[in-house]
Amino acid sequence: MSDPMLRLSGVYTDIAQYHILQGVNFDVPRGQVTMLLGRNGVGKTTSLRTIMGHWRARAGQILLDGQDIAALPTPAIARLGVGYVPENMGIFSDLTVEENMILAASSGPLDRTRLDWLFSVFPPLQTFWKGHAGNLSGGQKQMLSIARAMVEERRLYLIDEPTKGLAPAIVSTMAGALRQLKDQGASILLVEQNFSVARALGDSAVVMDDGRVVWTGAMAELAGDAALQERLMGLSMEAGH
């Protein structure tokens, strides 16, 4: 296998007096979707935030295409081609949809071809292009949040629970957009609690528990083994979690 797009090696992250990540090791293969799974509170979001530089790793390496980015500030990591979709969406409610997208396009004017593709997967963004983002529905805000990360082709996409709390129709739209991004050859690290989405999109899986990685392997292997799901996460994801 070729060198991974991203490699975490012995990563420790502390938040105040709490030791959240405790020696995290995993790879994100190039051109694949890696699912980051586990129960709530085990360190998945902290892992994404540490990769993105929002939290600083106390120890360990975070290698992006072989370059250690662990000590870089967040803007520098973004400029290296890392797109991040936080769980709280991270959009600017007082700005229009168009202005949100312009701000996300760091390399210059919006690319018309890519914008047309985003309109095809997220039609409400075109409908409300001149409207304030704060007036969008919850699902539409999530579409905008993901579209902002997708507005330019990135080396790596970090996406935190994109379907959380969304209606089934919006979940389907979101999954379709992520599948198209995958089909373009994107490297994606995706935190997702909806198992049907994880099973449909994931190539590989990383399962965390208590700040550590407890299992890595093919997503299909995990999806096909309810006993393994139960052992790793204390639940059967087939139950709809």
TrEMBL record:
GO molecular function: ATP binding; ATP hydrolysis activity; branched-chain amino acid transmembrane transporter activity
SUPFAM superfamilies for this protein: P-loop containing nucleoside triphosphate hydrolases
Protein's GO biological process: L-amino acid transport
Xref: InterPro entries: AAA+_ATPase, ABC_transporter-like_ATP-bd, ABC_transporter-like_CS, BCAA_Transport_ATP-bd_LivF, P-loop_NTPase
The ABC transporter domain, residue ranges: 6-235
Top-rank taxon, per record: Bacteria
Keyword ATP-binding: yes
Magnesium listed as a keyword: no
Keywords assigned: Amino-acid transport, ATP-binding, Nucleotide-binding, Transport
PANTHER family the record matches: ABC TRANSPORTER ATP-BINDING PROTEIN, HIGH-AFFINITY BRANCHED-CHAIN AMINO ACID TRANSPORT ATP-BINDING PROTEIN LIVF
Membership in a protein family: Belongs to the ABC transporter superfamily.
Protein name (record): Amino acid/amide ABC transporter ATP-binding protein 2, HAAT family
Protein source organism: Lutimaribacter pacificus
